[in-house]
Amino acid sequence: MGKILDQFGNHLAKLTSTEKQVLYYIDQHLQDAMHLSLTEIAKVNAVSTTTIIRMAHKLELEGFSELKYMLKKSSQQQERSSDSPIELYKREFISAFDTIQPDELENLSDRIKRAEQVIIVGVGLSKMMAEYFSKLLMQTGKQTYYTYESHMIDLLPNMVKPNDLVFFISTSGETKTLIQAAEKLSYQVVDTAAITNSSDSTLGKIVKTNLSMTVEKVNFAGYDITARSTLMLLIDLLFASYLKK
Known about the structure:
Blueprint: H1 3-8, H2 17-28, H3 30-33, H4 38-44, H5 49-58, H6 64-81, H7 85-97, H8 102-114, E1 117-122, H9 127-138, E2 144-147, H10 150-154, H11 156-159, E3 164-170, H12 176-185, E4 191-196, H13 202-206, E5 209-212, E6 219-220, E7 223-224, H14 229-243
Parallel strand pairs: 1-2, 1-3, 3-4, 4-5
Antiparallel strand pairs: 6-7
């Protein structure tokens, strides 16, 4: 399965055989398709322009112009993926560093210092980040613990106290379990924050502060393989800022 089919695989069942034919063509001829007009793609596939527009709508796109934008973006991602891992990570880190807000680091480190207890929540691959952050703070004598079990996360609203600080660690900021817990805590007098790879995530909008480095999301065969190393870097930067307090 090519990159385009991988991206829109969940929508294939909605398409007619003619619409699938167009999508398969685009997937197999990405470099050509991104330079063709609506009429030209229709001609190559012997279909009407209406068929292509209808296909785009079924893929939950606004129309052909957004489809062309997606093709260009996919092409750029393919070009970047051909780079060596060292060059790829170097470019990502340099770009991500520019998105860090030093004021947020200072603000959060102050709140860690004032908090009676720091609770760190992470699930899946982010569980290791939550444990790492928690153990860093423990070394300074800060009252802290981390949790990753769903039933404990559900109980958080009943466990936290007004002077506690709750951190959510999430790569995407879209993990349903964490979003639900953050929503419940938003109705209580408790401080919340998140460390994510997205400055515009659902989780980030619910908590009081979202510390993030904007990193491009990467999917492979339906799995999120976005780098987690940026989360580790943010944790280290925040901890270093806290130590200065």
